[in-house]
Amino acid sequence: PRGGHGVTVFEAQTHPGGMTRGGIPEYRLPFAAIDRDIDVIRSMGVEIRCNIRVGRDLALDELRRDYDAVLLALGLHQGRATRIPGSDHRDVRKAVDLLRLATAGEDFGVPRQAVVIGGGNVAMDIARTLARLQRRSYGQVQVTVTALEDLDHFLADPEEIREAGEEGIQILAARGPQEVLISDARVIGLRTWRVKGIFDEQGRFAPSFDASDECCHPADMVVEAIGQMADTSLLGDDLTERLAWERGRLQTDAGGRTSEHWLWATGDMVRGPDVVTAVADGHRVATDIHSALREREIGR
């Protein structure tokens, strides 16, 4: 709007904010702070239309036809799967899904015992969220976090690991998930082996395990927190094929423009999960779109 352009944001969820609202616990990023920023954005003239999922309620081709530029800022709303035996059970959940439900205050069935697979910040987020819900529901915390990495190489920030421990969460390093244990159609735990190595001699991801060092971690829910990806189904097969990708990330130029002249992209789906970087990139891409539209006007 500052550059004289009309701007419309299409949001699939009930409230705006994307991953900042649905993927980060409120104790880390208060909703009131998000709402203040959104109010400022709306006051500048940005129209935010919620409960509209592009690809279902509105086709991407319609946006290309009706708008001078389209910016994708999809976030990483889908969790990656371990694909170990038993992981297709209904009580094996994705961390990002549970965080979204917890944020919305929806009841997803708080487990009495939970095992979280993963050693990043999202793993700590869901572990701490479950711990607080358990304390409120049952008066005690029974959450275990297992990760491939040893503690010195955990992907989570050191303060997140420390604070998770302070909340009564058991953190087990160098444990590789092998099987979700099921009895009488119910999840009863997770089997892990000790990790001997994570990468092969060429530096490729290829975990190796010591099967003689086995542990079974009791749980009635297993949570996968091993990474996230964007839901790019709205792009369709043809456009997905034309765009440039690298390891699941959409490739853009320095200004955020994709290989399609009308389409820009920014945020987690381009650079990975980082709120500060996403906000900075939003400013950078907005400047590039403004310049492109000005050049288009001058050329007419």
Q: What are the low-pLDDT stretches, counting only 5+ consecutive residues below 50? A: none
Overall outline: globular
Q: Which range does the strand content fall in?
A: 25-35%
Helix content: 25-40%
The end-to-end span amounts to 22 Å
Mean pLDDT, to the nearest integer, reads: 95
User: Count of helical segments?
Assistant: 9
Number of strands: 16
| Rg, nearest Å | 21 Å
Q: What structural class do the secondary elements suggest?
A: alpha/beta
The protein's oligomeric status is single chain
Largest sheet features = 5 strands, parallel
Q: Give the strand line-up of the largest sheet.
A: 5-12-6-7-8
Order of helices and strands: EHHEHEEEHEHEHEEEEEEHEEEHH
Summarize the structure.
This protein has 300 residues and is an alpha/beta fold. Helix content is 32%, strand content 25%. The strands form six sheets. It has a five-stranded parallel β-sheet. The chain has a three-stranded antiparallel β-sheet with strand order 9-10-11, with no helix packed on it.
